[in-house]
Design a protein that fits this description.
By secondary structure, the chain is of the alpha+beta class. It has 2 domains: 4-96 and 147-257, ECO RI Endonuclease, Chain A (3-Layer(aba) Sandwich), CATH 3.40.580.10; 103-142, no CATH class. Helix content is 33%, strand content 20%. Helix 1 (23-38) runs antiparallel to helix 3. The longest helix has 16 residues, at 23-38.
Length: 258
Amino acid sequence: MTGTHDRSNSSCSISIKYHKIEKKYFYCWIQQLRMEVENQSPQQDQHYLSKRAKWQDRANQGGKVKENEVGSTLYDYFSTEEGKNYEVMAQPKFFDQLYLEVDYATNPSNYQKPSGKIKGATWWDTDKQEFREYTETLREKRSECGIKPDLMIRNKVNGKMHFVEVKNQGDHGNAHERCGKYATGILDHMKRKMGVSHHPISYIFGGDMVHKRKYDLELKACYGNFAPGHLVLLKNETGKNGDIILNWFNTVVEPLIR
């Protein structure tokens, strides 16, 4: 079940819709993934992968399991009296027009709505307070040209937010390298949009990679000093990392958005 909440950002005057994670969604997703993986044979892989859609990392059979473990743990905690002021959301759209916003700040004249329908034309809609575009079929829709962290934690009282990237990887792959975009100037744009000076995102890794010394050293070298406290390694079996997740939230995240 999906709920939405509108919140305007003063710096960009853009209305944002948040998609709330429901407990039922998490548990059904985990069960579905486990069933798919258990029922899969090597001969079926190509056909199986071709049917997976919409979730960016779902092609990695265990990718979303770790993400949902983090989200489920937080959801359960936020359902208690102690955590009732917070909520967790999946695939937040807060930054999904960020690249357009950055360019618009210096080139606003490039974002005027054309008098006629033009394929690929993009403009700033003052009424909807968002960027719109014409598709290849000249259909008008909301533009998406930015980033979508895996999860967002939000303080329901003051609206403060913290974002989370969750990557699950085996002994081979580059899931951890895809977090590298946050080590670029994009981080400054995120901070400016949020109106904060602190590091606004955490990096949670799981899977076989966190048990391999080469990855352990690489992750600590890349993220340890870059974002102290924001690097979390889930080294326990799926479903048994609750203490690690909650300790990270209580000691790192909550003080930033309290």
